[in-house]
Structures are given as structure tokens and as C-alpha cells.
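Reminder to self: C-alpha cells first, then the designed residues, so the page reads top to bottom the way the pipeline ran.
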């Protein structure tokens, strides 16, 4: 159900700000746990920002050189995907095209060989699934890759999802569960009284509530009343889309310069860039050139193809590059679910679950301690001075 009517005097049990993959996953989890009155507010179009721009790769192992808390968190979320996708299909009839072919990381030089050797060693020593391949063995799996590929690793458990279908499925699931999806509505500020949330102020009027979840991606720290110590910046990524016929790869294929992602409908995505360009959402000649050159290094025949589409999006990055998850220690009823940076699609199932646990049961997974917003407090001089002026309800 999409609300377009006047929402003055509106109330909600929980308000989620941001309708990307993170906000939608949390809303669905809350509704599945019988929180009946959930409102999700999206400024433009549901899933229309980073969550649509993404490549949908679910690959914590492919670039990891050690096992830390973030690595374990990401692997846990990846391993939730088969059930997540199956239940979403039951709920909505939408197939999110979870593709379990696996991911290849290809190398060209002696330096790459050493790097892949080390990655293979530490991952096998931890009991993780990873296969070491020669260039010829890699070409047996993917005949179109360059003759210059001299070594590869195959990660059978690193997979991919069609993230735009995932957005469609999460949207449909929320509609069916009775979540009120309010798109075309901008949240300007939070209303806080006696250090507790009492409302959100939106372009369509205030909504009274005691619980707010900030899931506004790269814009999360621009909402008034968010503690200034929490700073989320946009990191622009550009993507290219080819349409080779027939499809030229089965695996997601990485090199040290980027990746290729074959989709079931015949599209081949190539990405990406990593740029600090503010909120300038556009593709650039330089960006496209770099991606094309990376793609043709992996599959030389891509040089002959024209791309059919291109786009850009903003990865939400916190100062330390890690997610910001869980309750605020300064404002009762305020929760964060942001800063997912390069991995928001991968981390959607676990984020939905842990935030719903925290909101409904006050349950605190050890992961929420690691990724707590409180870790940034030391950079703010005092809790009080880290807030913008409080807003009273008009
Ligand atoms: C090129 C590219 C490739 C990527 N590839 C991958 C990948 O392969 N795998 C992976 O796991 N991740 C990938 N990512 C990262 C992933 O896309 C993000 O981490 C994820 O989408 C973040 O989701 P989100 O819901 O937090 O943010 P978003 O999808 O950006 O959603 C936030 C929403 O909040 C809304 N909003 C903001 N402010 C307000 C407000 N004041 N009021 C109301 N609404 C508001 C916005 O309009 C937006 O729709 C990629 C990102 C990019 C850019």
C-alpha cells in the first residue's frame, strides 16, 4: 500500500527512514514478527539509489585476506541467502535469481600469483571452501577469459543475486505484510524530547512514534538531529552493462581492477569505480574508460561490444568503513542501520534480523557491539554537543 494522502496526525509503532535494501529488509522482518504498525519513508523511489545501482555480488571471501568480525558477519549473511531467497519467493512469487555458480578471481602476474597463493593458504587453513586453479584450468571453466590469465581462485560459496528483483520482492513482501510504504516523502528531522524519540518531521507532516530506524544510506547523517559524531559519506560507483549474445561467462569474475557479473537475462555488468565526488550522480568518460579497459583485460572480446546501459550510485561509508548498526546510546528509541558501504546487498538479511531483534526484544547480538554507533562517541567532545538543536513538533 502506498500512502499519498495527507499524513498529519499520523502515528506509527516504528518509522524506518530510507527505502533501500536495508530499510526494506528491516521493515519486512519487523512485520513478520507481528509489529503491526510499521511505516517506511522513502524520499524518491523504493530501492532507487545504491540498492539498484549495485552488482548484487555476495562474496565475502573473494577479496578477504584475514578473518575478522566483519568477515564472519558477512559470511553469516551470505549463508542466510538461500533460505532468504526461498522464503521471499513463497511470500511474493518473485524469483530473486540467486545464482550459486560461484566466483572466480583471476590473476595475470607473478605478484597476483603470490597474492592468490596467500589467500588460498589462509582460507584453507580456516576450513573455508576455495579452489586453486592454473590459467588453463580457469579457461576450462570460462573459455572466454584472456590467454594472459595465469592463475585463479574459485570460491564456490561466493554467489550473486539480482538486486533489482530483490528490491521488487522485498517491496511486494512488505505490501503483503501490511507495512505502509510512503514514497515521495522526505524526512527532514527527528523530534526528540527528554532524550527520547517522539516523532519524525516529514515533507508531508509529522509522524508520532517512539522508535525510528535510520536506514537512509549515504544520506543518513544529513537528517537533522543525527549525532554529528556519526558521519556517513557517499562513495560513488559507476557501472557498465553489456549485452553479449550468447552470454560469455557463468561465474562472477574478479580481477584486482574490477569485476564482471553475468545475469540470467543475458546482461553482463562490469564495475566499478570508487570516487569521492559528493552527491554528483553521473557516469563520467574517465570512469567508463577505466571499467571498459578492466573488462577487456579479463575477456578481450568485450572490446568489440558496445555497452547498452550505464549508471552511478552512492555507497554509504562510515569513517572506518564498517556498518553502523544498533541502538543509539544517547537517544532512546533511535536505531541505526547504515554505513553498509560496498556490501549492503550482501548484508541485508543479517541486518534485517539483528535490527528487528534489537527493536522487538532488545536483543543484542555480539555483532551489534562491534558495529555499534557508540564507537564514534570518543570523537565527539560530549554527547550533548554532538547533537543539532532539538526540534519540537510544530
Ligand atoms: C556501483 C555499486 C556497486 C555495488 N555492488 C555491490 C555488490 O555487488 N554487493 C553488495 O553487497 N553491495 C554492493 N554495493 C553496495 C550496496 O549497493 C549498498 O551498500 C546498499 O545498497 C546500501 O543500501 P541502503 O538501503 O543503506 O542505501 P540506499 O539503497 O541508498 O537506500 C537509502 C534510501 O534512503 C532514502 N533517503 C535518504 N535520505 C532520506 C530522507 N531524508 N528521507 C527519506 N528517504 C531518504 C534514499 O532516497 C534511498 O533510497 C554497490 C554499490 C554501488 C554504488
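Designed residues (394 positions):
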Amino acid at each position: 500500500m502506498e500512502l499519498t494522502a495527507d499524513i498529519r496526525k499520523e502515528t506509527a509503532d516504528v518509522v524506518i527512514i530510507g527505502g533501500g535494501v536495508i530499510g526494506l529488509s528491516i521493515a519486512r522482518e519487523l512485520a513478520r514478527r507481528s509489529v503491526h504498525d510499521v511505516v517506511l519513508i522513502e524520499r524518491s523511489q523504493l530501492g532507487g539509489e545504491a540498492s539498484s545501482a549495485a552488482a548484487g555480488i555476495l562474496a565475502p571471501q573473494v577479496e578477504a585476506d584475514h578473518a575478522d568480525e566483519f568477515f564472519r558477519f558477512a559470511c553469516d549473511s551470505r549463508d542466510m541467502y538461500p533460505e532468504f531467497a526461498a522464503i521471499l519467493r513463497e511470500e511474493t512469487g518473485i524469483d530473486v535469481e540467486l545464482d550459486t555458480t560461484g566466483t572466480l578471481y583471476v590473476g595475470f602476474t607473478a605478484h597476483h600469483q603470490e597474492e592468490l597463493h596467500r589467500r588460498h593458504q589462509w582460507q584453507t587453513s580456516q576450513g573455508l571452501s576455495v579452489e586453486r586453479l592454473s590459467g588453463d584450468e580457469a579457461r576450462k571453466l570460462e573459455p572466454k577469459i584472456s590467454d594472459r590469465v595465469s592463475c585463479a581462485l574459485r570460491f564456490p560459496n561466493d554467489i550473486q543475486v539480482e538486486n533489482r528483483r530483490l528490491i521488487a520482492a522485498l517491496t511486494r513482501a512488505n505490501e503483503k505484510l501490511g507495512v505502509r510504504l510512503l514514497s515521495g516523502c522526505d524526512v527532514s528531522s527527528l523530534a526528540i524530547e527528554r532524550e527520547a524519540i517522539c516523532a519524525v518531521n516529514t515533507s508531508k507532516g509529522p509522524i508520532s512514534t517512539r522508535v525510528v530506524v535510520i536506514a537512509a544510506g549515504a544520506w543518513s547523517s544529513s537528517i537533522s538531529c543525527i549525532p554529528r559524531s556519526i558521519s556517513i559519506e557517499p562513495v560513488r560507483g559507476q557501472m557498465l552493462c553489456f549485452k553479449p549474445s550468447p552470454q560469455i561467462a557463468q561465474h562472477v569474475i574478479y580481477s584486482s581492477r574490477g569485476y564482471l557479473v553475468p545475469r540470467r537475462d543475458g546482461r553482463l555488468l562490469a564495475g566499478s569505480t570508487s570516487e569521492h565526488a559528493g552527491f554528483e550522480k553521473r557516469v563520467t568518460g574517465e570512469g567508463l574508460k577505466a571499467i571498459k579497459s578492466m573488462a577487456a583485460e579479463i575477456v578481450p572480446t568485450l572490446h568489440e561490444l558496445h555497452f547498452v546501459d550505464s549508471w552511478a550510485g552512492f555507497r554509504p561509508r562510515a569513517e572506518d568503513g564498517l556498518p553502523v548498526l544498533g541502538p543509539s546510546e544517547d537517544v532512546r528509541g533511535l536505531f541505526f542501520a547504515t554505513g553498509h558501504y560496498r556490501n549492503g546487498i550482501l548484508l541485508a538479511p543479517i541486518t534485517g534480523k539483528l535490527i528487528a531483534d534489537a527493536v522487538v526484544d532488545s536483543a543484542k547480538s555480539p555483532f551489534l557491539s562491534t558495529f555499534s554507533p557508540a564507537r564514534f562517541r570518543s570523537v565527539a567532545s560530549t554527547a550533548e554537543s554532538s547533537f543539532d538543536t532539538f526540534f519540537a513538533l510544530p
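The chain is about 30% helix and 25% strand.
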